[in-house]
Amino acid sequence: MTHALPTLPYAMDALAPYISEETLQFHYGKHHQTYVDNLNKLVPGTEYENMSLEEIIRTAPKWGVFNNAAQIWNHTFYFDSLAPATIPTLSEEFLTRIVEKWGNIESFQTAFNDVALKTFGSGWAWLVKRADGSLDIISTSNAETPLTDSSVTPLLTCDVWEHAYYIDYRNARAKYLENYWHVVNWAKVEERYNG
Ligand code: MN
Predict the structure, then answer these.
(1) N or C, which end of the chain is more exposed by having fewer CB within 10 Å?
(2) Order of all β-strands in the sheet with 135-141
(3) Which residues in the chain belong to E strands, given as ranges?
(4) 14-69 residue pLDDT tens
(5) Which residues have C-beta within 8 Å of that of residue 165, sequence separation ≥ 6?
(6) CA of 93 to the centre of ligand 1 (A)
(7) Which pLDDT tens digit goes with each residue over 56-83?
(8) Gap from CA of 168 to ligand 1 centroid (Å)
(9) How does pLDDT run across 117-157, given as a tens digit for each residue?
(10) How far is the CA of 154 from the centre of ligand 1 (A)?
């Protein structure tokens, strides 16, 4: 099967000024597209040819095919985790889950940013749901993805590869993380939690 670049669920300038149109032109239009193109070059004639993206990620050894498949999945999940800035509204149940783990939203965001900031080199920070319904924050390196860990359900991610923020923030990952919260799609996070 041929893998396609998913449609971005908002306009290229919709996340500005927190994430600029130019960043999305490169991050979505070039980086994400390249992972799709690479995977489509790598899989024909292999055992992965007829597998879904998720099946490839759960099957392939961690190089080449895996890296490109996982990066497609991670980026689709990341872009779907974002939305034009709105006032976040959280359900009582979801807010309770955050409060029981971190005390309040601000402390959760600080803990998440801390994990994102300490992710060495390229990688991802994730809010995940554990089997008992509790929340946790984890970090993955390079193309690694929580999709391969059946004990967690990913709810939210932040891409901390430099290509995600270098155009807007240069080396200031902390500033990118601070502004990231303006464009988090909380409705999507909750939908994944309830999923
Ligand atoms: Mn990226």
Answers:
(1) C
(2) 135-141, 123-130, 152-159
(3) 123-130, 135-141, 152-159
(4) 999 999 999 999 999 999 999 999 999 999 999 999 999 999 999 999 889 999 99
(5) 23, 172, 173, 176
(6) 31
(7) 999 999 889 999 999 999 999 999 999 9
(8) 14
(9) 999 999 999 999 999 999 999 999 999 999 999 999 999 99
(10) 17
Per-residue pLDDT at 165 exceeds 80: yes
- What's the 6 CA to ligand 1 centre distance in angstroms? 14
- Average confidence (pLDDT) over 168-178: 98
Q: What is the 164 CA–ligand 1 centroid distance (Å)?
A: 5
Q: Return the pLDDT at 72.
A: 98
Task: Report how far ligand 1's centroid is from the alpha carbon of 87 (Å).
Answer: 25
Residue 87: pLDDT band (50, 70, 90) is confident
State in Å: Cα 103 to ligand 1 middle.
30
Tell how far the Cα of 94 is from the centroid of ligand 1, in angstroms: 27
The answer to whether 69 and 39 have CB atoms below 8 angstroms apart is yes
Spell out the domains of the chain, with CATH numbers in brackets.
Answer: 21-80 (1.10.287.990), 92-194 (3.55.40.20)
User: Are the CB atoms for 142 and 148 separated by under 8 Å?
Assistant: no
Question: If you search the block for the tokens 């939690």, which residue do you land on?
Answer: 193
